[in-house]
Write a structure and sequence with these properties.
- The structure holds two protein chains of two kinds.
- By secondary structure, chain A is α+β, with helices and mostly antiparallel strands.
- Chain A contains 13 helices and eight strands.
- In chain A, a hairpin with a 5-residue loop joins β5 and β6.
- The longest helix of chain A has about 45 residues.
- Chain B is mostly helical.
- Chain B has one domain: LemA-like domain (de novo design (two linked rop proteins)).
- Chain B contains seven helices and no strands.
- The chains are: A alpha+beta, B mainly alpha.
Chain lengths: ~400, ~190
């Protein structure tokens, strides 16, 4: 379990280095084409990359949370969610309890953020809390904790910035070629090496067009791999792959679209929030692996929950392909990891359960929006909006005048 | 002659580096095992603290279940006494307590009034999560013990462990079969 992080780091470093090489290569070629100096281009690329890094660093992790309109929760707001996160914190050996946020959106989804495990946060939508039962929620939270534990957020931020820099540089270069190119990028006597210049120009243009595509492919491939790894972590932490499988099933069957999700934040979610039904998900430009496949792998794990088992099933599903878990991890984590059996949980009628959960979540959201909850002696409960004027309210059921606390 | 000396010095240095590397990883594992044991301990204590509250809350409702309540109280007392007496004995007492609690909640299902009591529901969620935390902390602890034991017993790290006095850790296994079947008390 611990070797995995080290091995992941090495592999990730290679991928990020590849992207960095792509960025520098592009800077060099742009420099050659436009300024007659490769070094100038490399400097330009580095400056753009540095500025984007600084912006990301100072905005911090809060930018994800504020883009998604997430609100911070306290323990008293939703004790059960807090308990589940704490359980998974213990199971994963995370050093510190992550902050918990809620997004008021009916589309069920969740994401994790935080560049290091000490400053992590998990956000869930209200739709997720409404739909999932305890085991399923546990699976989802374990998946998110897996992201935190495997340092996926840091990796995706670093590679996301690189991809952004490459795309930005390519866009700038193309703009310059189209609008500024006519003015003559290479004025002055450049030594008459016309043919050499032409070759560099063509190579440069091809590179400028291709580099962003490659950067995206690397980025998406990395993102998909990380999703599998987080799924495997979830199975390992909960010892109950069925929980996550059934959660994924419920989440993916929802037709609601998360309104606050952006392309930049999409890889962070447990299920691609931008995926539209009808488009085949199994393509190279997806941030997430096909959900049906993720479910199939989890379900095929049977009564075992270790990384080795996930890897075995993964190989079966992808015939001939390599595994998803680093070899060194498998070697270190040999041993029996038994999954929990089918949980013996009393089945209440689904409908009542759903109603209860929906009520719980709406209570929570209203509390966050500073609604005051009031219970009348006759047993009726109502909530008073924060802009309600007056110090008392008449109970609609029995007619008692109730004073509003704090007014 | 000089070359032989250099070779010997080189071998000694390399061996030394390997020795300290292995030693450090053993220390890291042992610390992790100790730390995760304290995690289990925290949760077990929390469970001990919750049970009197629970009994107090349900006493009025479950007048006819004196035996069950007494059995839970007794199991708690012996679990409290067993704490600090070594992993094996403590695990046995806690396993019995878990079994008792499972039985208790099964009985409580027959009291609809109780299930409408907010206080009881909050306590139930607390006990559910404590129960889950115990099993997850145990899981993490046992994983750590397994890694430590592998290192202590397998060649070549067993040589370092033998020289520096590392011992194999003890697994925390709950004895009661009931606990294995129902690792969690889930009431949604």
């Amino acid at each position: 379990m611990w070797e995995q992080i080290r091995s992941n780091k090495i592999k990730s470093v290679w991928l990020v280095a590849g992207m960095g090489a792509l960025l520098l290569g592009m800077g060099y070629l742009i420099g050659e084409v436009f300024f007659d100096s490769g070094i100038a281009g490399i400097i330009l690329a580095s400056i753009i990359w540095l500025i984007m890094n600084l912006v990301a660093f100072f905005q911090g992790d809060n930018v994800f949370l504020s883009i998604s309109k997430a609100k911070k929760l306290e323990r008293s707001d939703h004790p059960r969610l807090f308990n589940i996160v704490e359980e998974m914190k213990i199971a994963s050996g995370l050093p510190k309890m992550p902050d918990i946020y809620i997004i008021d959106d009916p589309a069920p989804n969740a994401f994790a953020t935080g560049r290091d495990p000490n400053k992590a946060a998990i956000a869930v939508t209200s739709g997720l809390l409404q739909r999932l039962n305890r085991d399923e929620l546990q699976g989802v939270i374990a998946h998110e904790i897996g992201h935190i534990k495997n340092r996926d957020v840091l990796l995706m931020v670093i590679s996301g910035i690189m991809m952004g820099a490459i795309v930005l540089l390519a866009d700038l270069a193309l703009l310059y070629l189209i609008f500024g190119g006519a003015r003559g990028g290479r004025r002055g006597p450049s030594g008459g090496g016309g043919q050499g210049q032409m070759i560099i120009l063509i190579v440069g243009i091809v590179f400028i067009i291709l580099a962003p595509i490659f950067a995206r492919l690397i980025y998406f491939a990395m993102s998909r791999r990380r999703e599998y790894l987080a799924d495997a972590s979830s199975a390992l932490y909960t010892r109950y792959p069925e929980g996550l499988a059934s959660a994924l099933e419920k989440i993916s069957s929802s037709t609601k679209v998360l309104s606050s999700a952006k392309r930049a934040t999409a890889p962070m979610y447990i299920i691609n929030p931008l995926h539209k039904p009808g488009i085949k998900a199994r393509d190279l430009s997806s941030t997430h692996p096909p959900t049906s496949e993720r479910i199939r792998i989890l379900r095929s794990m049977g009564n075992s929950a270790s990384f080795a088992d996930y890897d075995r099933v993964f190989r079966q599903v992808h015939k001939g392909g390599g595994g998803v878990i680093p070899q060194s991890t498998l070697a270190g984590a040999a041993g029996l990891v038994e999954a929990r059996g089918e949980s013996v949980e009393e089945k209440k009628p689904e409908k009542i359960e759903k109603l209860e959960r929906a009520r719980e979540v709406s209570d929570l959201l209203e509390k966050l929006n500073r609604y005051t909850a009031l219970a009348c002696n006759c047993g009726a409960k109502f909530r008073i909006p924060p802009d309600f004027k007056g110090s008392s309210i008449r109970c609609p059921r029995c007619g008692t005048i109730n004073p509003i606390p704090g007014r | 002659m000089m070359i032989a000396v250099y070779i010997i010095i080189g071998v000694v240095v390399v061996l030394g580096i390997i020795f300290f590397g292995v030693y450090n990883s053993l220390v890291r594992l042992r610390n992790q095992v100790r730390n995760s044991w304290s995690q289990i301990d925290v949760q077990l204590k929390r469970r001990h603290d919750l049970i009197p509250n629970l009994i107090e809350t349900v006493k009025g409702y479950m007048k006819h279940e004196r035996e069950t309540l007494e059995a839970v109280t007794k199991a708690r007392t012996s679990a409290v006494e067993a704490s600090g007496k070594g992993v094996g004995q403590q695990a046995k007492a806690e396993g019995e307590l878990s079994g008792m609690l499972t039985r208790f909640f099964a009985v409580a299902e027959n009291y609809p009034d109780l299930k409408a009591n907010q206080n009881f529901l909050a306590l139930q969620e607390e006990l559910t999560t404590t129960e889950n935390k115990i099993s997850f902390a145990r899981q993490f602890y046992n994983d750590g013990v397994m890694h430590l034991n592998n290192k202590v017993q397998m060649f070549p790290s067993n040589m370092v462990a033998g020289m520096t006095g590392f011992k194999v850790g003890e697994f925390f296994e709950l004895e009661a079969p009931a606990e294995r079947e129902v690792p969690k008390v889930s009431f949604t």
